Amino acid sequence: SVCPKCGCTHFTQDEDTLDTWFSSALWPFSTLGWPDKTEDLDYFYPTNVLVTGYDIIFFWVIRMVFSGYEQTGKCPFSDVLIHGLVRDEQGRKMSKSLGNGIDPLEIIDQYGADALRLTLVTGNAPGNDMRYSEKKIIASRNFANKVWNASRFMLMNIEKADLSNVSLDDLTPADKWILSKANSLVKEVTDNMENYDFGVAVSKLNDFIWEEFCDWYIEMVKPRLYNDGDTTKAAALWTLKTVLGGALKLLHPYMPFITEEIYCTLNPEEESIMIASWPEWKKEWDFKQDEKDVEMIKEAVRSIRGVRTEMNVPPSKKATVYVVAEDASVRETFEKGKIFFATLASASEVLVQSDKSGIADDAVSAVIPQAVIYIPFAELVDIEKEIQRLEKEEGRLEKELARVNGMLSNERFISKAPQAKIDEEKGKLEKYTQMMEQVKERLAQLR
Questions:
Q1: Would you call 358 exposed, middle or buried from its count of C-beta atoms within 10 A (0-12, 13-18, 19+)?
Q2: From the CA atom positions of the chain, what is the Rg in Å?
C-alpha cells in the first residue's frame, strides 16, 4: 500500500500501544496500593463478587482474571454475577442514537431513588434483560408510600402502651400468625439473596409487606388499638414494631433511604439500619398452628367479601355473621379471632355454633373447607328497595331489547348496515337477554 500524502511504501506498526481495557483490567488491585504490599490489598483482595453485564465478559471480566493471575498470582474474585441489560418499553437497547435512554436523575427527582432501585430489581432474573417502563416506577413509588403509611400508622399509635415487658405469651393468634410469617420470610429472603435471586427476594418482600402486613394485619389490629378497654394493645404494638423493623432490614438493600429514615425513627437508640443486625430465623417464633388458624379466618373473610360483592352490598353495611362448624377446634379459632374477624367481614356481630339452629332459611351462605358461613338475607339487602331497583332495571332492559330486536328484524338495516355494526347489535341482544334472565330470576327470589 502507498501513503496518499507522501507516496511512501514502508510502514512500521507502533510497538507502544495499550489495550483500551488495560487500566480497568487492573482495577481490582491497582486501587489498593499495588505493587506495594498494603493493608488494603491484603484485606480487600481478592474480593467476593464482581457484578457485570453479559456484553463485556470477554472485554473486561476475562482480562481482569488473567491480569490478576499475572500480577498477583490470584483470581481477583470468586463469583461473577452477570445481569441483563435495561431496555426500553419496546425491548430496544437504550442508546444515544435512538434517544431512548432515560436520565436517572430526572426519574429520581420525580419518584425518588428508592423507587428507581426497586424497579430495577423487581421481576429481574440474573442474566435476563429487563424492560424499563414508567408504570413499573409508579408501582415502586406506590409501594414506598405503602411502607411509609404503615410506619406512620404505627408511630401514631405507639404511645398507647408500654412495650418494655411484652412476652410471647401475651400475643394473640393474629400476632403470632404475622410474626411466624415474618420469621419464615427472613429465612427465605436470606437464602434468595445468598443465591443472588434478588428479583425473587423482592417479590416475596412486596407480597408480605403489602398484603399480609398492611392489608391484613394492620386491619386486624385496628379494633384493638382504637378500643380503650382492650388489654392486648401492648402485644399488638410490640408485634407491629418487631415485624416492621425486621421487614425494613430485609428491604434495606433495595430501598436504602426510606428504610433508614423509618428505622431510625422507630429505634432512636440505634445508630443506623446499615449496622443493625441482620434478622435471623428463630425457633420460638415458629407458630405453625396459629398460621393455619388465621389463614382459615382469612379464607372465611374472602368468601364473605365475595358474596357481598356479588350482591352489591357495600362494606359499610354491617350484618350478622353465623359461623357453623362441627369441629370444636374450628369453632374455638373463630371465637378467638372474633374481634378482627368481625371488622374484616363487616359483621355487626359474629355467632359461632355447631349447627344451623336459629338461622333463617333464606340466609346467604359462603362455604370454606372447615365451616359454612351464613348471613341473614334481610340484613344484607333492603328487600323493598332491591325490588324497586330491579323493576327499574327490568323496564330499562325491556326498552333496550325492543330497540335491538326492532333493528335486527328490519330488512333495510340488515341489508344496508356494515357487518361490524350488525355483529355489534347481535352482541348487545345476547348481553341484554342474559341480563334480563338474571334480573327476572332475582326478582322471583325476592318476591
A1: exposed
A2: 32
Report pTM.
0.79
The owner of cell 337477554 is 433
* One-letter amino acid of 379: E
Strands 86-87 and 77-83: unpaired
| Count of H-run helices and E-run strands, the chain | 19, 8
- What would the pLDDT profile of 411-445 be if each residue is shown by its tens digit? 888 888 899 888 999 998 988 888 888 888 878 87
Q: Please report, as a single letter, which amino acid is at residue 116.
A: L
Nearest C-alpha neighbor of 300 from the set 349, 378, 369, 360: 369
Q: Is the backbone peptide bond immediately before 46 cis, with ω within 30 degrees of 0?
A: yes
DSSP assignment of 140-181 equals HHHHHHHHHHHHHHHHHHGGGS--TT--GGG--HHHHHHHHH
Q: How high is the pLDDT of residue 30? A: 92
Q: In whole angstroms, what is the distance from residue 131 CA to residue 124 CA?
A: 10
79: β partners: 49
The 3-state DSSP class for residue 70 equals helix
Which residues touch 271 (CB under 8 Å, ≥6 apart)? none
Q: Name the region of 346 (left: φ>0; alpha: ψ -120 to 50; beta: rest).
A: left
pLDDT tens for 323-332 read: 998 889 999 9
Q: What is d(CA 443, CA 320) in angstroms, rounded to the nearest whole number?
A: 23
SS3 364: strand
Longest Cα–Cα distance of the chain, Å, equals: 112
CA–chain centroid gap for 94, Å, is 28
Can you tell me the distance from the alpha carbon of 264 to that of 245, in angstroms, rounded to the nearest whole number? Answer: 10
Find out whether 183 and 212 touch, Cβ atoms under 8 Å.
Answer: no
- Provide the terminal-to-terminal Cα distance of the chain, rounded to the nearest Å: 102
46 contacts 68 by C-beta, under 8 angstroms: yes
